[in-house]
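Reopening this ticket.

The earlier resolution said the output was attached, but the attachment link was broken on my side. Pasting everything inline this time so it's all in one place.
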Amino acid sequence: MPFSLIDDKLKFVAPANLRYIVPEGELQGRPAHPKGCVAKVASSVANQHSPGKSFPMPVRYFQRRFVVGSVVGSIVLLGAAAASAQSSRPRRVEQKKQDSLLLPQPTPTPVSKTKNVPLLDVQPVKPVGNAPASSAPADTTHAFLLFQQGHYEASAKEAKQVAADDPQNAEAWKLAGFSEMGMKKYAEASADLQKALDLQRAAKQEDSHTVDELAQAYFFAEQFARALPLLVSSTTRAGTQPDTQMIYYRAVAEYKTGKIADAEKSFNSVVKLNPKDSSALLYLGQIALARNDLDGAIVALNRATVNDPRLAGAWAQLTSVYLRRAAAATDETKADADYLSAVRAGEGLIKLRTDEDALILFGNALIGSKQYARAAAALERAATGKDAKETTFYLLGVAHSRAKNFPKAIAALERAAQLKPNDVNVYRELGYAYEIMKQYAKALAVYEKGLSIVPNDADFKESADRVRPFAK
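Inline output:
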């Protein structure tokens, strides 16, 4: 399985702010829903896993106006995916009947190609001249046999003993490196394979197997700058068909070293050779998202989720991108369609993950599509955690408020205010809920608290003046 974006090292580019804007209340003389509420939602991961940048994400609602923020986890990224005739809506994939909310998160970690490349060129080497004085093996014959049998630790130990007795023995260093790759000791493997390659080059006997294995050792040790030239050599070797997995590693190394245009070309090459490579498509979607190519991102991410319905990072990114595109839409019908698509993508996400960040994102999508009761149910689940975030309670309050369940809205918003006392967005929503419940003194106090944070805010001034005559 190719290197994943869901681990802790390759995090998602997740938008830092989601804004929802809802028109004012219809009844003249009644308080309108708060304007301009902005909340920042901390991103999760997830994995994985991403460049650590964030992007503003305005999103509109069309009943009453308010603004909320949201991010997806890990986890960030940047390239337009190839044009596709597929719909930009997330596709439904048949799942086996099971408790989908408890499914484990997929972990598509790449594996070394050691087992896939027979070491036909690793030959037992007999010493030249007198045998070493030590009792160590006289050559790599036995170490090589151990390697073939999968006894990597014993093989590495014997090969390194031969190398210690004969430091110029390139085959001993090479066999030690291959054995260490089998044990996933990538740092040690890269050091020994580098010694082998240096000796081969000095003798003008460089071999492709050593180059390829060293490239992977550096890659898995996350030394991408050192891996990249070797990966380029491996994938551009004259007279050979480049291996798809090695092109993928090259693309990731290019991405991680900031060569985004090169990475996009390489990921597209991977998809051309293997149209179902979901990890490459996920990268392409994030590359497109980073340059604000929302249509291209949606195409790539939809393909990724179709090819691998258990790729949680793709569902999370797809939900976010639909929300961003809905925000940018000038046509209300198109915006509503994108909100519904965000809900469908969110449903794919929570089949795999039910952590707080996933539920926050799903709740955002449900609020955007005006499914307030469902949003409240999802956010209530997120709010049960002992370390639930202020944003969870804020969005929960918004969902209850839009569903006209003001007592529950007040309870959630009061908790949000305790967790983040200087968030003016909470005070807009809380003041509105108090005012609707005719708790004018509390509404005035909340509006004045908002004014103390943003003294020149016209909405707070207007709201405070409106309720002041009734506050006792």
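Reporter confirms the inline version is readable. The longest helix spans residues 332-350. The first strand starts at residue 17 and ends at 19.
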